[in-house]
Amino acid sequence: MVPLNALKYTVSALVLATVLALLEWAYIRVARRNHIGVTASDKGRRRFVAVGGGFIFILAAIMAVAVFPATDPYIFLVYMYVGGGAILAVLSYADDLITLSPRLRLGVHIAVTALVLALMPFGSNYLLYACAVIACTGYMNASNFMDGINGMLALYSGVVLATLACVMPSPVVLALLVATAVFAAYNCRRAPAVYSGDVGSITIGFFIATSLVYYILDSDEYSAAVFVLVFLIDTFCTFMERLLQGDNVFMSHRRHLYQLLIRRGAHPLAVSAGYAAVQLAVNGVWLMLPEAARPVYAIASAAILLTLYIFIRIFALKRYNA
């Protein structure tokens, strides 16, 4: 016999997926009619791709807390968490439409993240708190670069959310996982129907980063940082390279490894699936290991992936002068 809670979650997930799929379908048509999107080129043929489909992420989070209200002692944290995501979603969608000042965007990202993290159990460890704010803000903006590559945001975020759902199965995390699957149905195509836009990439980055920080603090499992290790290494190495070259690190660029691989001719979906598969393998092994072995595994994984990254990056640069 299926437990009532499991049945309620299953039915809620199916209803949520249906509602979000219909809303995404409707949004794509509205966006096309109002030219909210970009014109992409595919083998010489130009096609319009709607932008802003990631609005379903914040909608899923709001619906989750509406159906499964938070309880004490986490009620204020949960509502601030979803409220912070809503503020970022509104700001980011405005940026999708009219391009806001980078300083304004970054300032709001830091302020919202700092406010939500201030509710978490850092105690008097202000240095750790400051590092967490910087790391979360960095991940949010790094997540923004995933959008525009078919399947990257959907597949990679899906892997991370699925891992988080295994260790902290909250209604919001599960709802975001459903929303990611719905978005993937429209985005993981040779010719994507929609991109997430800042409204989705910034929001999902915020939810993933702050959820991960909360889990690390609550469980004292700092090795759980490996949940985002693949993209963390790519982003950190790209940032350092640009910094050493004197580039403006706050400007958009196309220097991530996955971007170079695609410019060399690799198919976007293949690259996205590769990133997600490697992260899935890293996370899967971590989940199976005993707690005592996880810190060593995290360090070893970081060393191996960093070495692999450097090897591929040098190879890519030799074959493609970028």
Describe this structure in words.
Helix content is 71%, strand content 5%. It is mostly helical and 322 residues long. A three-stranded mixed beta sheet has the order 1-2-3. Helix 3 (75-98) packs antiparallel against helix 4. It starts with a helix and ends with a helix. The relative contact order is 0.12.
Looking at this protein, list some descriptive labels.
single chain; about 325 residues; mainly alpha; three-stranded mixed beta sheet; 12 helices; about 5% strand; globular
Which helices and strands, and how do they pair?
Layout: H1 4-33, E1 37-42, E2 45-51, H2 55-67, H3 75-98, H4 102-117, H5 126-146, H6 152-167, H7 171-187, E3 194-195, H8 198-219, H9 229-244, H10 257-263, H11 268-288, H12 294-319
Q: What's the average pLDDT?
A: 89
Order of helices and strands: HEEHHHHHHEHHHHH
User: What is the gyration radius calculated from CA atoms?
Assistant: 19 Å
Q: Sheet with the most strands?
A: 3 strands, mixed
**Strand ordering within the main sheet:** 1-2-3
Q: Which strand-content bin applies to the residues?
A: under 5%
